[in-house]
Each structure stands twice: as structure tokens, then as C-alpha cells.
Amino acid sequence: MLGRKHGIVSSSSDISRKDAGGDVPRRSLLAKTRRGALVEVLGYGSSMVIRLGSNLVLTRMLFPEAFGLMAMVQVVLYGLVMLSDVGISQSVVMSARGDDPDYLDTAWTVQVMRGAGLWICACLLTYPISLALDEPELLWILPIACSSSAIHGFSSTRVFTLRRRLDLVPLQKLELGTQILQVVVCIAAAWLGLGVGALVVAHLVSTLVNTAASHLLPHTDHRNRFRLERTARAEMFAFGRWIFLSSALTFLVVRSDQILLSRWLGSALLGVYNVGQALAEVFDTLTNRLASGVFYPTLARVHNERPNDLRRAYYDIRRWFDALLFTALGGFAAMSQWIVDLLYDDRYAEAGAMMRILAFRTAAAMLATVCEACLVAQGASVYSFRYNAVVAPITLVAMPLGGLLGGTTGLLWGAVIARTSGLLVLWPAAWKRGFLRPEREMLAVVYLGFGYALGWLALAVLPEPP
Fold first, then answer.
1. In the prediction, which pLDDT does 330 show?
2. Does 327 score more than 90 pLDDT?
3. CA 67 distance to own-chain centroid
4. Coil, helix or strand for 438?
5. Hey, which end of the chain has fewer CB within 10 Å, N or C?
6. Mapped to the 3 state alphabet, what secondary structure does 314-343 carry?
7. Higher pLDDT, 169 or 452
8. In whole angstroms, what is the distance from residue 410 CA to residue 351 CA?
9. What is the dihedral of CA 259, 260, 265, 268, to 10 degrees?
């Protein structure tokens, strides 16, 4: 979720002042954007290689039901997090007091309280969720797995400080290090025969280590302590009110498919679906990371200093973004079945067809994400809420209707239609604010089709998977 209260003030071509991170050398803003994007891409690419490698191993050690059960846990945890999101990290990153110890300690205290509250809610919801999904094993899995929310609540605000200063390398090292640890623990626990317990144990160990290591991150000596300053708390909650409303709807938008499919398919086929979804959403996740961590700060600076250059800056960013990501996504869609057959055994064969449909849902989400980043950079964060307010109810109608008319395939196409409908909110607003070029938006569709054609040609020459 993107949000802004205090402007990020600097030149659109150079940065030559002191900011929250200290002295900033004179440099090209475009070069800084590219460096930040490169760090995000390399970090996420490394993460995906580790994740893919672990999935290839674990899908041969565990049954699909284990992944389905853990997916249900993730839906519950994600829902609780999104339904209680008050923009703590965003407020620290954007606030003029983001480096004030009193402000940081207030943010940390609120974060700890929120984490503990999430765990209590998860425990209270365990029985009704287990009953609703007809999965008795959730009675012990949910309370244990969701204790990670309480652990994570103690993470240091040094994470927020580094994001505020656009110093992303230490954060990438922390993320990759804990991910590798999680994979090692999970494989070891699966080898010992713990089944779904291997996924739970690995999740808790990685959360605990990540939380502890966050207090050792560089560039600040501040150590968090419990404190609730009234002014800081008021500013934080005032900033987070739109984030709270938008995040609540985001949960419905992002996880509606898993909520509906949990009941529609059962844990085994849901595990297969998650394989296809994980592959298709690589591009969606990367887009969100680039938008929130790199594109948004860049566009905000351009808007604050040279608003007339915003359209050009927006499409300067989109030039390489569209060419690379939409072309690659089209190729993935065309080759989805071949990729699944190559990487997984016969139990996961149905994930290929699911992945192809989900790729088109991802394309619509990518277009929405970059447009939303530019709107929020102009201070129009309300459109994040409006986007979700449209997509959420359409999702809840289109997916079940699609399921009734076309089974699982129809249900997934309903998700594509719902996500695409959100553009009807964002694009008119972007046109009114002067940075949207409709003919240029169609270029993303051209890239998607070009990538699909390349993937289709590749299938003609590639051998059948063993």
C-alpha cells in the first residue's frame, strides 16, 4: 500500500541537499532510480531462485495437502495483518519526524501491541476457521504458525529508517539470509518426517531470526524502547486512516481467490493452485516492490519540484519496465504448461492451465500498480481506496459466477475480469491529472502479445519435458 502525507522534496534531476540520511552527493535522480531498481530486481531474483529451488525439493518430500494447509494459514495471517494496517512503516518513511527517537519508539510500541493483538485474534478464530474450511489440523497449526505475528512485532524500526534513506542493500541481505535459513530448516524438518509441521517450524525460526537481526542493522545506534508520545501517535493514526481502509479492501482483492478456492477445491487442489499462482505472481510481486520502493519516491520528487515533467518521468520509467516485464510475462503465459511439466511431477500438472490464466490477471494488476504509484505521488492516495472499493465487490461476484458457469477455469477468469475493472477507476483519474497517454498504455498489451508469440515459437523448438 502506497501512501503520502509529507512531501519528499528534491530536484527531479539532482539531489544536492541534506535529507534524512545525511549528506547526499550531487547525483542524477534517474541514475539513483536505476540503482534502486537494480537492487530490488537482483534481491528479488535471488529470492525467487531460492524459493524455486526449495519448492522443487519440498514438492518431492511433502504432499500437496501440506502446502494447501499452509496456504490457508497464510490467508488468515495476511487477512489479520491487512485488516489492522495503520501504515506504521509508511508513516515513519514519510514523516518529517521519521528520525525522531520519540516518533520511532511510538511506532515500535504500536507495532508490538498490534503483533500481540493479531496473535490473540488468530487464536480466537482458530476453531471457527477450522470448522468453516473443514480442516481439523488447523486447530493446532493456526495458533502456532500465527505466533509469528507477535514475534515480528518486536522488529526494529531500523528497517523503516533504511527504507526512508533508500539504503536497500542491508535489507536485501537480511531478507535473503533469513530466507536461506528458512529453506534449510524446512528441508531438514521435512526429512525428519514432520510433514506440514516442517513448514510451520521453518516459518517460525526464520521470523525469530529476522526479528533479532533487525536490531543489528547498520546506520543508526537507536535502540527501541516502549513509549507512546501523544503527538506522534495522533500523527501516525491520522496518516494511516486511508491506508487502513484500503488495506482492508486489499485483503479481499488479493486473497478472495484463495478464500473461495479453499472451500471450492479442498487442500490438495489448493496446493496445486498455489504452485501456479506463485509462478504467475512473480511479476506482480516484483512490480509492487519496484513501485513502492523505487518508482514512488522518484515520482514524488519530480511532482514536488517539476510537476510539468511528471508525465515524461512516468513514461521514462515505463519504457524499460513495460518492455522487459510484459514481454517476459507473455512468454510465461504461453509456456506455462511446459514450465510446470519441467519443474514438477504429475501431481501438479493442473497448475499449468491455472498459471496461464493467472498471468493475465497479473498483467492487469501490473498496469494498475504503476498508475497508482504516480497518483499517490501527487498526493491522491484516495484512489488506492477507490481502486480496491471497486475491485473487491466485483471479485466477490465475478469469481463465484465464473465458477458456476465454467468451474475452476471460469472462477479464475472471474478474477481476471475483476482485477481489470480497477483500471476504470485509475485511468480516468490519471487522464484528468495529465500524465496518462492512452495510446502509450496499449504498448504494454503489444509487449504482452509479443512475449506470448515468442513463447509459442519457443514451444515449437523445445523438447518435451522429461
1. 93
2. yes
3. 19
4. helix
5. C
6. HHHHHHHHHHHHHHHHHHHHHCHHHHHHHH
7. 452
8. 15
9. -10
Q: How far apart are CA 54 and CA 180, in angstroms?
A: 9
Most confident segment among 68-77, 194-203, 232-241, 361-370: 361-370
Residues sharing a CB contact under 8 Å with residue 39, sequence separation 6 or more, in sequence order: 168, 169, 172
What is the model's pLDDT at position 445? 92
- List the chain domain ranges: 26-239, 281-466
What is the per-residue DSSP string for 242-282?
HHHHHHHHHHHHHHHHHHHHHHHHHHHHHHHHHHHHHHHTH
pLDDT of residue 14: 34
Residues pairing with 18 in the sheet? 23
Strand partners, 19: 22
Type of residue numbered 39:
V
Distance (Å, whole) CA 314 – CA 183: 38
Q: The C-alpha cell of 402 is what?
A: 465464473
CB 85 within 8 A of CB 237: no
How many CA atoms within 13 Å lie on the side-chain side of 409? Answer: 6
Distance (Å, rounded) from C-alpha 225 to C-alpha 105?
A: 6
What single-letter amino acid sits at 162?
L
Phi-psi region of 150 (alpha: psi -120 to 50; beta: other; left: phi over 0): alpha
Find the helix packing angle between 382-421 and 423-432, rounded to 10°: 130
Q: Give the number of other Cβ atoms within 10 Å of residue 43's Cβ.
A: 19
190 — pLDDT class (breaks 50, 70, 90): confident
The residues facing 23 across adjacent strands are: 18
Q: Write down how long the chain is.
A: 466
In the block, residue with C-alpha cell 508520545 = 229
C-alpha cell of residue 147: 505466533
Cell of 174: 537480511
Contact 380, 240 (CB under 8 A): no
Question: Cell numbers of 450, please?
Answer: 509479443
Question: What is the C-alpha separation between 96 and 89, in angstroms, rounded?
Answer: 13
C-alpha cell at 296: 514512488
Closest by alpha carbon to 294, among 92, 35, 33?
A: 33
pTM: 0.66
